[in-house]
């Protein structure tokens, strides 16, 4: 075969290269938004587990340590809610409540912690990995509540009038095809339960 003839088949022509780039550009334009939505959807679906873990931790620490505990929410920069679990060991005349008692912090143990060798320090979890509140809206019920207190028996302390009774996570319209609205209901028994605020009784998924 003539050398000039062979050179015609040695590589891509400019037209072929431009077509390939156009195809790649189209695939990226379609794929990147879909991938972004997929990642957001996975994070949104895991949000309820993030908060359920905190509530379960608070209740478990209360029962295990025979102490009062609390699950406290605080807003962060992305509009979601970080959580922290503290414990308190009541003494006669000084109950553990929102206004009294020595509560643990992430830096220090509570006063009167009987486990001096390995005292409990508060557990903090940041919600920075969750989607921004534009994509997943957290709603607290009653409005203005910041958390829930547990007794040493694992029951919700009803002396706090602003105790959290429900945390609802509502996805943005762009995610609703793959992400349902989920709520965590916190009954007096203290065991948080997932429910769907969009359905009504007698559907078993309905919120109490």
From TrEMBL:
InterPro entries: N_methyl_site, Pilin-like, T2SS_GspH
GO biological process: protein secretion by the type II secretion system
Location in the cell: Cell inner membrane
Alphabetical UniProt keywords: Cell inner membrane, Cell membrane, Membrane, Methylation, Transmembrane, Transmembrane helix
GO cellular component, one term: type II protein secretion system complex
Topology with respect to the bilayer: Single-pass membrane protein
The General secretion pathway GspH domain, residue ranges: 53-170
Protein family per UniProt: Belongs to the GSP H family.
Superkingdom of this protein's organism: Bacteria
Major localisation: membrane
Residue intervals passing through the bilayer: 12-32
NCBIfam families associated with the record: IV_pilin_GFxxxE
Name of this chain's protein: Type II secretion system protein H
Pfam families according to UniProt: GspH, N_methyl
